[in-house]
Design brief:
Blueprint (H helix, E strand, L loop, with lengths): L1 E7 L7 E5 L5 E6 L10 E9 L15 H11 L4 E5 L10 H13 L5 E2 L3 E4 L2 E3 L2 E3 L3 E5 L2 E3 L2 E3 L4 E2 L4 E2 L3 E3 L4 E2 L4 E3 L2 E2 L4 E2 L4 E3 L1 E3 L4 E2 L4 E2 L3 E3 L4 E2 L4 E2 L4 E2 L4 E2 L4 E2 L16
Parallel strand pairs: 1-5, 6-9, 7-10, 8-11, 9-12, 10-13, 11-14, 12-15, 13-16, 14-17, 15-18, 16-19, 17-20, 18-21, 19-22, 20-23, 21-24, 22-25, 23-26, 24-27, 25-28, 26-29
Antiparallel strand pairs: 1-4, 2-3
Length: about 270
């Protein structure tokens, strides 16, 4: 009736886990097991192949989850569920850290440096692998250490350091003496003069001022404005369209009531 992609992981308590026999038939399945319930480290990847018959078991107008509701119901009724043992890299990108991990894996797949179109660079250093798109301008004495991907139309000022496992989108501006490490910058992002972003995810059209510190494991939403000399503490989240004033210090999540303000879940 159902086949479920399974993969062995180190921390199975956050996922649905399955126990299979030698014929790959699933004997037990439990969603987010607690202590004493972790009978397997085979986590559900969320990849399912289902018979159309399952639709007759899903009630209309009611919240009904595959792992919590459908799979236990099928097993209770005697249907056979099988596992497929996946190999390779897998992560649930429902958290910023796991999303960055997925991006690291993709950047690790860059086999060599790739430069497309017109690139301007003066007295700098590029240590690959890097993927550079068209119309990128790189200032004097910049150092780019791969793996790094940079989108078209991006401008990088003088004396900028871009460290490994960084991706920068299209039409971004990285001003002089800025430093970006292991971060994901989306499109039209500005990083101000002498500012540092480390292990951060920064969404579209966000502007970071001069002399700012964007600490590790931060997520900054789209169209945010962060003033000069601001400090964004690690593990904080800034909602879309929030303005952080000059010299601001952000120590907890900054919400915007115009948007969904939940922090939990995927």
């Amino acid at each position: 009736m159902v086949s479920i992609g399974l993969i062995g992981i180190d921390e199975p308590s956050e996922y649905g886990i399955a126990e299979i026999d030698v014929n790959y038939q699933i004997r037990r399945f439990r969603e987010k097991p607690g202590p004493g319930e972790i009978f397997s480290n085979l986590a559900s990847t969320g990849i399912y192949v289902c018979s159309p018959e399952i639709f007759s078991l899903i009630p209309k107008g009611k919240k009904f989850d595959f792992a919590r509701d459908l799979f236990p119901l099928l097993m209770k009724r005697g249907h056979i569920l099988k596992g497929w043992l996946a190999r390779g890299n897998w992560t649930d990108v429902g958290s910023p850290a796991s999303l960055r991990q997925a991006e690291r894996w993709k950047l690790d797949e860059l086999p060599f440096s790739s430069i497309r179109g017109n690139i301007s660079i003066r007295a700098g250093q590029i240590l690959g692998p890097v993927m550079l798109s068209d119309a990128i301008s790189i200032g004097k004495n910049c150092h780019i250490i791969g793996p790094v991907a940079i989108g078209s139309g991006t401008t990088i000022g003088d004396d900028v350091l871009i460290g490994p496992y960084t991706s920068i989108g299209e039409n971004c501006t990285i001003r002089q003496q800025a430093k970006v490490f292991s971060s994901s910058l989306y499109n039209h992002v500005t990083i101000g003069r002498n500012s540092t972003a480390s292990g951060s995810i920064i969404d579209n059209d966000t502007v970071i001022g001069d002399n700012c510190s964007i600490e590790h494991d931060t997520v900054i939403g789209p169209r945010v404005v962060i003033g000069n000399r601001a400090v964004i503490h690690s593990k904080t989240r800034i909602w879309p369209e929030v303005v952080v004033p000059d010299n601001g210090v952000v120590t907890e999540h900054l919400l915007n009531e115009k948007y969904d303000i939940r922090c939990e879940g995927s």
